[in-house]
Write a structure and sequence with these properties.
14 strands; alpha/beta
């Protein structure tokens, strides 16, 4: 039975990336060594890192003001590293609380300075994205999470403000065409749309960090990583290589325009099916629904385990909702084929016919 991988992360990768990565584990570029055993300062790996950084700039169409880093620690480390670098004790930063990850980022930032929560959708269980809120220009930056993996919401329009934008794009990076030059700092864990778990992408406008004079640990200082071109310490070599392969795949497939077209096609099919079947329902405001993570429910809760069991029987993996949300979650990252969404929507129709 073929598998349909709807995991929210670590998640599905393109088949050709898996094949290329598996070959490199045995013999990287026919040099007689595994990618797992080459030195990170050899030309073999430096070339990998430089191509990966260049592809990020190319796909995002970044201007010359931006630096690209591949770092350790996941997006969760960035919750702390960002305010550690950018925020002094007497300074304030604005944060949006639109889900579990934004809430965690707020908690970490509060250890380093003043945090102003300028927007929150907690009042309605994070089922919408705030709009038209005030962002005091006294803040050092505005932080938001572009796609809320757990709750199933997404920022489709970003705030217009003179305050520098800092964005966690862990779950929708490289899935759509937007003006990435509007952001001062972007960060993303790789394990959704750009590779394997173990490496974090950080894209920084140099204007944001060039004047940092805080006395912070060397390994946490962005400028040290910029100067060392992501080789300040031993990087996660294999994870960076898988990211490179994934970035090559995105470019070959047609870049971000094609990724966006596919994402919209897949999500439209799923949401139209949810809306057409009375047995299923979504609590998310329609204009804020995520193209990456669809969160929905079965009106008769007693049928949920039955539906999940049928998914399992049909090779559909990772559809159970996050533990704090419950319900169903279908993640539709770049590498997920339309055929998988067609399969689960057909299963939903059959299930509704039998149980509606």
């Amino acid at each position: 039975m073929s598998k349909h991988n709807f995991n929210s992360g670590p998640s599905i990768l393109p088949q050709e990336v898996l094949e290329q990565a598996s070959t490199a584990i045995i013999d990287f570029n026919k040099i007689g060594l595994s990618i797992l055993e080459i030195g990170h300062r050899t030309n073999w790996f430096v070339d990998v890192m430089e191509e990966a950084r260049a592809l990020v700039k190319e796909l995002m169409q970044l201007n010359e003001q931006y630096e690209v880093l591949f770092l350790h620690g996941g997006a969760t480390t960035q919750f702390m590293q960002i305010p550690m670098n950018l925020l002094a004790n007497t300074e304030s930063a604005a944060y949006c609380d639109n889900g579990i990850w934004g809430s965690k980022a707020i908690k970490e930032a509060s250890l380093f300075g003043n945090v102003q929560v300028v927007a929150s959708s907690k009042d309605k269980n994070y089922t919408y994205i705030n709009k038209g809120f005030d962002i005091p220009e006294s803040n050092k930056y505005l932080h938001l999470t572009s796609n809320n993996t757990v709750e199933g919401t997404q920022w489709h329009h970003f705030p217009e403000t003179n305050v520098p934008l800092v964005v966690d794009m862990s779950s929708d990076i490289f899935s759509r065409q937007i003006n990435f030059n509007q952001f001062s700092l972007i960060y993303a864990g790789a394990q959704k749309n750009m590779g394997a778990a173990g490496v974090t992408l950080v894209v920084i406008n140099k204007n944001m960090v060039e004047k940092i004079s805080k006395n912070i640990p060397a390994i946490m200082h962005y400028n040290n990583h910029i100067e060392a071109k992501s080789l300040l310490n031993t990087p996660p070599v294999f994870a960076v290589y898988v990211s490179l392969l994934t970035l090559r795949w995105i470019k070959k497939e047609g870049g971000l325009a094609e990724m966006q077209k596919r994402a919209e096609q897949k999500s439209a099919l799923l949401y139209n099916t949810i809306d057409a079947l009375p047995l299923f329902h979504s609590t998310i405001d329609k204009e804020d629904r995520s193209n990456m993570n669809a969160v929905f429910f079965i009106k008769d809760e007693n049928l949920q385990n039955k539906f999940l069991e049928e998914c399992k029987e049909h090779g559909m993996i990772g559809v159970k909702g996050y533990r704090t949300m419950g319900g169903i979650r279908v993640s539709m990252y770049n590498a997920l084929q339309l055929a998988s969404v067609e399969a689960i929507t057909q299963l939903m129709k059959n299930f509704a016919n039998k149980n509606g």
